[in-house]
Design goal:
89 residues, mainly alpha, 82% helix, flat
Length: 89
Amino acid sequence: MVVTEQMRREIAGAVAEIDLAQMDILRRMTPAQRVQMAASMIADVERVAVYRLRQREPELSEAEAYRIVRTGLLEYERQKRRWETTWAD
């Protein structure tokens, strides 16, 4: 992997934003607590993605939106474009 100058700047920017107090809190957490925190963040991101998807496509049920989010929005968008292209002809 080649590390570009832009990548170096982005990494340096991310490192500069690290909160040392937060890192100390994370270090004191047990592995189980860190896994729970990660799972909670994933669930939050899923909820936001489902909400945004249903705003764009209100005909989707919540369950269908979760399925799409969990299996990958990019693949869903590709299939949707293929379907629209096929039926547009």
